[in-house]
Design brief:
The protein is α+β, with helices and mostly antiparallel strands. It has 18 helices and 11 strands. The strands form 4 sheets. A 4-stranded mixed beta sheet has the order 1-2-7-4, with helices on one face. Strand 1 and strand 2 (48-50) form a beta hairpin. The chain is globular.
């Protein structure tokens, strides 16, 4: 299939395309081709890509669809490949995989620190960690990798404080989270060694959290660990609920915020006028963050599963199917966003779907937004001559679009 974009897409070999350097660098022309000719299409994994904004929004919000992968025939299809290194059935107590009412019950226990008032109260904490990291960058001087000195350390530092865990453990927690993130792709794309590494990381991370739970860490103050331990002692959560979902909170915080910061800085380095305005006027940070989330969404697709035959436009998707709601494609739909491939920090109107939708809307969205609104103005005000010092490197993933490296010169 060749669209007017000049991009050829073969749905029977879509994931071969996903593995190419061209797709990794810029997937949006491929998504444009799909939106134009095959907006709902079955690919070789057995999943169904959905790429138009209106359809993606409907899929994300429809309570008739499930988020439990066990509802999909693909779960059993690839089960034999997961016999070694699997995270096991206990992973399905993760509220991302639960449907209401179980989802609502578990999520409610973890959502307390992410409410509007609680997020507002975190502003000094986010600012303190941001300026600490910028100070460390200034002391290093010269050329640094923005991913390793800012984009990844900031969300880890913040979420450790939110949980009530020691900052001294940041390196270990970040390493475990990175292995779990690397496993967060469709089965067809996850090599066996990545599954084994993720399973090992989950075991070690779970033991670490369990030690803190048993030792009483987090029982004082307002940390999330204390809150969910109270829920466990009150019989509202099992210990497995606590451990699996705490891991998810850390992973989600890292992949969303680190992706936003890395992708956003890379985009702003190519847009000096927008970068200068943002440094001079921090009031532009909120619309700029929304536009950066739309332009290069850290999460590119969100899964849903059909429990009955499901109609999307003229297409009937069979029961037991894996719907791949392509939020990255939806956020570039020209029917919704004018000049969608262009960064426009003055853009207003329809909201992007980078944080999903419906009852599974990203719990940490407000925290990620706060981190972005803090980082971008502070970074460019502190280093007004910041410039690229080499080509950014992309993670070799499909679900997550983020950078593994972004060399920059501080201009000092």
């Amino acid at each position: 299939m060749t669209a007017r974009t000049g991009i050829t897409i073969d749905p029977s070999a879509f994931f071969d395309t996903v593995r190419t350097p061209g797709f990794r660098t810029d997937p949006y022309p491929f998504y444009a081709a799909l939106r134009e000719r095959l907006p709902v299409v079955r690919v070789e994994s057995g999943g169904w890509l959905v790429t138009r904004y209106a359809d993606v929004l409907t899929v994300l919000r429809d309570p008739a669809l499930s988020t439990d992968p066990r509802r999909s025939g693909l779960h059993e299809k690839y089960a034999s490949e997961r016999t070694e290194g699997t995270l096991g059935e206990q992973a399905f107590s993760h509220f991302q995989f639960l449907d209401p009412p179980a989802h609502d019950r578990v999520r409610a226990e973890f959502a307390v620190p992410f409410g509007p008032g609680e997020i507002k109260a975190l502003a000094p904490l986010v600012e303190r960690h941001t300026h600490r990291l910028l100070d460390e960058m200034a002391r290093a001087g010269g050329t640094v990798d923005l991913v390793t000195v800012l984009a990844e350390p900031l969300p880890i530092a913040v979420i450790l404080d939110v949980l009530g865990l020691p900052q001294a453990d940041a390196a270990d927690v970040a390493a475990w989270a990175q292995h779990l993130i690397a496993n967060d792709d469709p089965d067809l794309l996850v090599a066996p060694e990545r599954r084994v590494a993720a399973a090992t990381a989950a075991t070690e991370f779970g033991r670490y959290l369990a030690r803190h739970a048993v030792s009483g860490a987090g029982r004082s103050g307002n940390g999330l660990l204390r809150t969910v331990l109270d829920a466990h002692r009150g019989g509202r959560l099992s210990l497995n609920d606590v451990l699996v979902n705490l891991m998810f909170v850390v992973v989600a915080s890292l992949e969303t915020s680190a992706g936003l910061i890395g992708n956003g800085v890379a985009a702003l380095l190519d847009a000096p006028e927008a970068r200068g305005r943002l440094a001079r006027d921090p009031g532009l940070a909120a619309p700029a963050v929304e536009e950066l989330l739309r332009l290069d969404s850290p999460i590119q697709y969100t899964p849903r599963f059909t429990v009955a035959d499901y109609r999307i436009g003229e297409t009937i998707v069979p029961a037991g199917s894996h719907l791949m709601a392509m939020v990255g494609a939806a956020n570039h739909d020209p029917e919704i966003f004018t000049t969608p491939d262009t960064l426009d920090i003055d853009r207003r109107g329809r909201r992007h779907v980078g944080f999903g939708g419906g009852v599974h809307y990203c719990m940490g969205a407000a925290l990620a937004r706060m981190e972005g609104c803090t980082v971008f103005p502070a970074l460019f005000a502190r280093f007004p001559e910041l410039r690229a010092a080499g080509a950014p490197q992309r993670r070799e993933m499909f679900t997550l679009r983020s950078l593994s490296s972004l060399p920059v010169h501080l201009g000092q």
